[in-house]
Design a protein that fits this description.
Helices cover 32% and strands 22% of the residues. The protein is an alpha+beta fold. Bound molecules: 2-acetamido-2-deoxy-beta-D-glucopyranose (NAG) (6 copies). One 2-acetamido-2-deoxy-beta-D-glucopyranose binds next to β5.
Length: 425
């Protein structure tokens, strides 16, 4: 079932698995790191820049320290603690353990603290560990706007994941990150049917579940029977990308609460209006990536983007030259808004999609297992939404299906896994 993968906060482990690092030979599916292009970032607060990155690492640190004192360190320690616990999932999965619900998965990693972090805001959690409101307003909220289009009122767990992604060490794949998906799909040698799934109907034969999956495409309507079905698209009522229905299930499958956050990406080829950012002389504009705080603003981020393949001689366009910029915004940009950001432009291409769950729009965490052998991969999006998190969810669902199929119940929803994993070695 196809849907553009919900994008894109952290790309680390998944890509590391698929590609080899640095100048090493290409990995299993022939991917390489894209060459880095340096560019400075800054956070724009509506009238002036709140925080500007310099070329000098120590000066960046000094500025953070000068402006925000110990908040910056406390934030880092908080994020690291969450990430360290989250990383346990890779060890559990390497030993074949799976979870039938998002809550069980989170509990096994970080006990009630993790579950609680899906119910309380980033701001609450950070204030509690001594991060100041000013640092949250100026810096944290800008990062959350950039990755989720949401504010520091979003849940702490998803927030921590996106702040971890903001600490650098992200990289991209030469030729485009989409090569990860197409490469992995090819590797599985799967038989792909290009069609839209319309319904899943439960049939039983000799006490065993059998699922009839109906789909339609240009050729017409058709259906097939399957032992195991995995749904890899968000199931929610409003503006759903799928109109999937379930039939024959008792109790019915109707866990479709919650809405999604639309995101609009506009690719603009043109001349940046550096005056808008307080630089009347465009030659002096120093930034390639601009984040924004929660000031009343029509855009979340503005990035100078580079091709998916970077040659050795590549250089960024000078700030006064025409370049390709990516604007992320919650709503489509009006012409007047484009005219504010750009002195003039040659072309604009836009894409709008339901990018992330609107956190707080559903009261409970969903389950991976919807029925005996019917699974819901996107359930984990409700804890955090990124490519890496979805790869973890996919592996969990694969293990869950396998363990259930072979009745290996000792590998499902086990408690105290840290201890079990240690003694198994
Ligand atoms: C849950 O998190 C909130 C906010 O961080 C905190 O005030 C509360 O004590 C936590 N509750 C539990 C049971 O950990
Ligand atoms: C870009 O990189 C990809 C992956 O390495 C390669 O397949 C493709 O041919 C390259 N394209 C160009 C235009 O160099
Ligand atoms: C295919 O099925 C849908 C319902 O899922 C129905 O509305 C449509 O008419 C069907 N098309 C054909 C060609 O049978
Ligand atoms: C769903 O889409 C409609 C029309 O595009 C829009 O008016 C509405 O606000 C959307 N609802 C949500 C929750 O995004
Ligand atoms: C889902 O159904 C609604 C109403 O029937 C329709 O407007 C919408 O286009 C459908 N969405 C998809 C992705 O097929
Ligand atoms: C550029 O920004 C300045 C300052 O906000 C604004 O006065 C001007 O109208 C904008 N547009 C152009 C095309 O200069």
């Amino acid at each position: 079932m196809a849907r553009a993968a919900p994008l894109l906060a952290a790309l680390t482990a998944l890509l590391a698995a698929a590609a080899a690092g640095g100048d090493a030979p290409p990995g299993k599916i022939g991917l390489r790191h894209r060459r880095e292009v340096v560019g400075r970032s800054a956070i724009f607060g509506g009238e002036h820049f709140m925080l500007e990155e310099t070329d000098w690492y120590l000066l960046n640190l000094f500025r953070l320290w000068w402006h925000y004192g110990i908040s910056f360190l406390r934030l880092q320690m908080w994020v690291e603690e969450v990430m360290e616990k989250f990383m346990r999932i890779y060890k559990y999965q390497a030993h074949g353990y799976a979870f039938s619900g998002v809550e069980e998965l989170l509990y096994s990693l970080g006990e009630s603290t993790f579950v609680n972090m899906t119910q309380h805001s980033v701001a609450e959690s950070l204030l509690q560990v001594g991060v100041t409101q000013r640092f949250i307003d100026d810096v944290v909220s800008a990062v959350l706007r950039a990755s989720y289009g949401q504010s520091a009122a979003m849940p702490a767990f998803a927030g921590a994941m996106s702040l971890a992604g903001a600490q650098g060490s992200l990289w991209s794949v030469e030729g485009g990150n989409k090569l990860v998906c197409s490469g992995l799909l090819k590797l599985t040698k799967a038989n792909v049917i290009h069609a839209t799934v319309t319904s899943v109907t439960l049939h039983s034969t000799e006490g065993k579940a059998l699922y009839q999956v109906a789909y339609e495409n240009e050729v017409g309507n058709s259906s097939d029977f399957y032992d195991i079905v995995v749904i890899a698209t968000p199931l929610h009522l409003d503006n759903s990308s799928s109109n999937l229905t379930f039939a024959g299930f008792h109790p019915p499958i109707d866990d479709v609460q919650g809405s999604f956050q639309p995101t609009v990406v506009s690719l603009v080829h043109g001349y940046l209006n550096s005056s808008y950012f307080g630089f009347p002389d465009p030659k002096l504009f120093p930034f390639a990536n601009i984040l924004t705080t929660d000031f009343p603003s029509f855009f979340c981020t503005l990035d100078n983007i580079c091709p998916v393949n970077i040659s050795a001689s590549f250089r960024r366009k000078q700030p006064q030259e025409a370049a390709v910029w990516r604007v992320q915004s919650p709503k489509p940009l009006f012409r007047t808004q484009l005219k504010t950001l750009f002195r003039s432009y040659y072309s604009v291409q836009t894409a709008e999609w339901q990018a992330h769950p609107l956190y707080g729009s559903r009261p409970t965490l969903p389950r991976f297992a919807l029925h005996d052998q019917l699974f819901y991969l996107n359930a984990l999006e409700w804890a955090a939404s990124s490519v890496e998190v979805m790869a973890v969810a996919a592996k969990n669902v694969a293990l869950l299906a396998y363990n259930r199929w072979y009745q290996d119940l000792d590998k499902i929803d086990q408690k105290d896994l840290m201890h079990k994993v240690k003694t198994e070695l």
